[in-house]
């Protein structure tokens, strides 16, 4: 008597099962007996289950779900900061800002009165008081672009970082500013768009007034209304599995898969 291998029996059983027309009532009956799930689970093959186990392992290990440390409750603060920025554009021997792209001479055949197109890079001193010789607390680094053609005066698109130094209460921290600065206005408001260090997640606004202006030398009073702060919950590591736990979980999952495949062959 010819002995038929178990795998051949199982293959034939699967082909017969798949070839049979299955009504809704027949599927429900097979599901109730566990036949439908058993045949499908065996039929898809071990490669599929190895793939599924790998995805599950990675998901559990947190590789597909990295989480940033969260902010603690009530960790936001606010301050009003006032300081003075000394922007010396093309001041002989004492410049802190330079035209890196000159303005166009003419626009549409007319004189370019307000410097449209010029780009200025700056590295300005920031002091505690209005006098340039007062205590320095930071440097302001960034750029501004002259962006007005048909205006009554020059206007800028300005972006800069205030980098606080050792002379301040926030050494190493920064605040980022960006906005539209219509120079001839007595007060101009720009946005606070970020920060680092003490001022992490900073946002708010700043009001700029021109304290003094002597040709290219401008003394700017910057009053900042800043909301900031995120005392991070430093248990971020606990939200992701350690390498040893991840390895252990992988072994458990693959062991369970191997056991399932072995039992399915025994049957």
From TrEMBL:
| Protein name per the record | Dirigent protein
Q: Which domain of life is it from?
A: Eukaryota
High-level lineage: Eukaryota, Viridiplantae, Streptophyta, Embryophyta, Marchantiophyta
Q: Where in the cell is it found?
A: Secreted, Extracellular space, Apoplast
Gene Ontology terms: biological process: phenylpropanoid biosynthetic process
Q: Name one Pfam family in it.
A: Dirigent
Q: What does this protein do?
A: Dirigent proteins impart stereoselectivity on the phenoxy radical-coupling reaction, yielding optically active lignans from two molecules of coniferyl alcohol in the biosynthesis of lignans, flavonolignans, and alkaloids and thus plays a central role in plant secondary metabolism.
Quote the subunit structure annotation. Answer: Homodimer.
Which residue spans traverse the membrane?
A: 37-58, 247-264
Primary location group: secreted
Q: Which family does it belong to?
A: Belongs to the plant dirigent protein family.
A cellular component term from Gene Ontology for this protein is: apoplast
Source organism per UniProt:
Riccia sorocarpa
Tell me which UniProt keywords the record has, alphabetically.
Apoplast, Membrane, Secreted, Transmembrane, Transmembrane helix
